Amino acid sequence: MKYWISINTYLWKNIFNRWLESPLAPLSKVVLCFLLSLLSFIVIGLLKNAEEVLETQFNQREVLTSIVTIHDTSRQDEVIKLDQSLYREALFKKISPDNDLDYFRRAGIAAKDAQGKYYPIVVCFSEPTFWQEEWGEFERPEVYFFCDDTDAPEGDLVIGDFKFQPKRLPKVPLLATLAKGKGAVIVPYSLGRMLLTNGFSEMMVIRFNNIETMKSTHEKLEAYCAAENLNYSLFSALPLLMQLELFSKMQTYVRGGLAILIIIITAIVLGNQSLLEFREQQYQFALLRSFGSPLPLIMLAELMEKVLLSLFGVWLAYMGLEPLATMVRNFGADFAMVDIKVGAEDVRLILLGVLSGVFASWCFLVIVARKPVGLILS
Amino acid sequence: MMKIELKKVSFRYPGKREDLFHEFDFVATPGITLLKGYSGCGKSTLLRLIAGYLKPREGDLLTSSPHRVGSNRYLMKEVGFVFQQMNLLPLATLNRNIKLSGVNSDTGRRAELLKLFGLEGIANHRPCELSGGQIQRGAIARALAKGPSIILLDEPTSGLDDLNTKIISNALTDLLPKSSACLIATHDQRLHDIADEILDFNKYLPLEEHLQSLA
Fold first, then answer.
1. Per residue in A81-103, pLDDT tens?
2. For A292, which of B13, B45, B102 is closest by C-beta distance?
3. What is the pTM of this model?
4. Is the ipTM of this complex over 0.95?
């Protein structure tokens, strides 16, 4: 045991002596791993940041919601148009059975309050999906008005020849969007049908469960509207969502690419440097082997040296991220980099890349070191 | 009793077309055997083959050691080797060099050897602080420290003065265990006196043929 300790002590003494004799050699190994890791951390961090920003923005909006507005511009009678619209509603609900689909029609006429202010009228033939959760149970048929307190109508509402005292409901963001931010009147079906004969526009709000169904439903909708020659407009975050998906995919590729790049660069640079160093040391190592010191023991010390230096480089890069960000902040920069956050997963990836590179460079060394002692000590 | 036997051993250096040894037979018995011959005739190669530093292309190399020729245990326990030059580890003191040479070297034996070779005063010096003669004596002390049964010396006295040579030859005669086989590759006539046997490689390869092979 003492003998093995002596051999190991000598090997480490030799390593430290080498560091002291030419400090640039270990320094270059540390710097290489430091720079590669830092670069990777920054790239991964920036990508992650951008993805987080996008995700936050999406989450603030109803990102998996599409709004379709249809204007039937044909010269048919309004009653026929309404029948066709009802048929469309049934059809779209069939097309998109797994998603929440709410179909509204906005009447061509508006309600008027005592002050002479006009309010849009929304007619729902089927019960919208959010009613229960937003408003709970409420009686129908009744005329309701949903709004903020600020834009509540004063007194009775007049719709055509009728006067109503509408009941108040809290504002629902989704409906408010359709009413262009203001409140709107919801009328029962019976009254609604009559009001729609003066012209209407259709609005469909679909809330999807995932991007795939969103994509396929959009395709079907667009195909239908094109075939029926309908004038429609589709508001959706799908293109942005596709970008986010692309971003995620790109991140995976970038991470993989970075890891491979690190492995290749580390293996080539460290391998080449280690070979040069080893050639200087090989007589000494051969002498040790000539006493019976096992080659794996010698090579293990070489590997440990490289692992130690490269881990130090990665650690420096990790620890250097925050000071670097602070420095950038002090220069007054206002971009995503200053908030770079590197997760444990990313550190593991970089470590794996660096250590694989180190291992590959060590493998070159092992191949060279297998040369018989008798050919070295000749 | 250590016995080394080479049976029809053939060896060729990588990149060479000709065998240096071709079906070579040789037996080494305990005692000191001098290997003589022209430069490049294979004396040093024979020592390296016996140590296991080189592997024969064909043939068998047998020893009475329980360990496989060339294995770490064989080198650690059975073999003491002295090279022509650069024998000592540069970062270790002379004492540590001897300690590192094998598992069997105890403190008492190391001190005794250092005294016999006249190295006790410089035991804590590094090789860079020693003369050529001191290094070579240190190398032989290191080879003998673990009490090996096979001692192989490659030109141990080349370039050394008579005094150093005398110290070395006396130490070999006095310290070599009776059961050990010692092979010395040398041109040095001064070592003839201590040899139990002399193997002259020249008889296998006449001068004209040797010159031809070198050309």
1. 888 888 888 888 888 777 888 88
2. B102
3. 0.69
4. no
